[in-house]
């Protein structure tokens, strides 16, 4: 059993990824920690509690902070995810499910200490909570099993950014946190736009999911109407790219991804803010802020058809 804490800003693709993890028999979602980005921290936390209640999850939900480390606030991505973060489907005002008394980064620290070597952190939003956790308790680097991040872009397959020409939104939203998390002493795999924009789900595929998954199909179809319209208006796509579910899929089926290892730094200010830069060679330069960074893993290719088939099989219980 693969135990995870899912750090997330639900978020339409976040919800799809969480449902993939929940539906997968090999994964136990121990905790859900919320961050801000796709919606405000209030809305992403309400949405996490809503998903927990609606789908009968056992995971504890812990609310995160509402500001990036550099204190530069940006507006929630309501154009992509709707005002409520879940594509403006109707949501109850009150969710009668309790929150963890711990703030997200303390929840991460405490849970890793209680279950050393057992838990993978899967982060599909800004990396603020993970950065606060590893800064407060660097010893958790030895307690975590693995860290999997959806974020960043390294130029493979022509993908360099989605919020700016050279930055992916999660990393841009808290670049200091991303640089801390990627360069901490723990094993990180980055599943970035290089692969997430190689997989697309079409509207016909989503209709098939609606028909074949009694438990999740209608919900996934409903929340993705807004998201698909954004991608169609913005990029002319039929359907959308598959961002956050790629991080869960990497946990489930790493063999459908190609990866490589190297040193990574994040540009934290200026026009290239949020840009992720990968150094794959061992050459040491006279000035080299990559040389002391730990070697981490990035995903550079994926098999999109196998991806979509596995997502379908897990969600539809085949
Ligand atoms: Ca997300």
Automatic annotation (TrEMBL):
<feature type="domain" description="Inosine/uridine-preferring nucleoside hydrolase">
    <location>
        <begin position="4"/>
        <end position="308"/>
    </location>
</feature>
<dbReference type="GO" id="GO:0016787">
    <property type="term" value="F:hydrolase activity"/>
</dbReference>
<dbReference type="InterPro" id="IPR023186">
    <property type="entry name" value="IUNH"/>
</dbReference>
<keyword id="KW-0326">Glycosidase</keyword>
<dbReference type="InterPro" id="IPR001910">
    <property type="entry name" value="Inosine/uridine_hydrolase_dom"/>
</dbReference>
<dbReference type="InterPro" id="IPR036452">
    <property type="entry name" value="Ribo_hydro-like"/>
</dbReference>
<dbReference type="Pfam" id="PF01156">
    <property type="entry name" value="IU_nuc_hydro"/>
</dbReference>
<keyword id="KW-0378">Hydrolase</keyword>
<protein>
    <submittedName>
        <fullName>Nucleoside hydrolase</fullName>
    </submittedName>
</protein>
């Amino acid at each position: 059993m693969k135990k995870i804490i899912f750090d997330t800003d639900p978020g339409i693709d976040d919800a799809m990824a969480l449902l993939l993890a929940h539906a997968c028999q090999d994964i136990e979602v121990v905790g859900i920690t919320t961050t801000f980005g796709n919606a405000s921290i209030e809305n992403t936390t309400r949405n996490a509690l809503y998903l927990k209640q609606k789908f009968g999850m056992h995971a504890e939900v812990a609310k995160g902070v509402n500001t990036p480390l550099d204190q530069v606030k940006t507006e929630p991505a309501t154009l992509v995810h709707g005002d409520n973060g879940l594509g403006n489907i109707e949501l109850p005002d009150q969710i009668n499910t309790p929150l963890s008394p711990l703030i997200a980064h303390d929840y991460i620290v405490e849970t890793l200490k209680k279950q050393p070597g057992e838990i993978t952190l899967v982060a599909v939003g800004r990396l603020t909570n993970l950065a606060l956790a590893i800064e407060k308790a660097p010893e958790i680097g030895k307690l975590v099993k693995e860290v999997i991040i959806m974020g960043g872009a390294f130029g493979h397959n022509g993908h360099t950014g989605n919020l700016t020409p050279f930055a992916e939104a999660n990393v841009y939203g808290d670049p200091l946190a991303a640089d801390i998390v990627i360069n901490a002493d723990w094993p990180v795999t980055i599943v970035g736009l290089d692969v997430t924009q190689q997989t697309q789900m079409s509207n016909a595929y989503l209709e098939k999911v609606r028909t074949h998954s009694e438990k999740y199909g209608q919900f996934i179809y409903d929340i993705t109407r807004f998201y698909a319209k954004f991608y169609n208006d913005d990029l002319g796509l039929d359907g959308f790219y598959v961002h956050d579910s790629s991080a869960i899929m990497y946990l489930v089926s790493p063999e459908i991804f190609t990866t490589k290892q190297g040193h990574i730094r994040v540009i934290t200010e200026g026009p290239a803010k949020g840009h992720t830069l990968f150094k794959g060679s061992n050459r040491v330069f006279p000035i080299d802020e990559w040389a002391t960074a730990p070697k981490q893993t990035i995903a550079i290719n994926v098999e999109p058809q196998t991806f979509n088939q596995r997502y379908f099989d897990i969600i539809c219980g085949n």
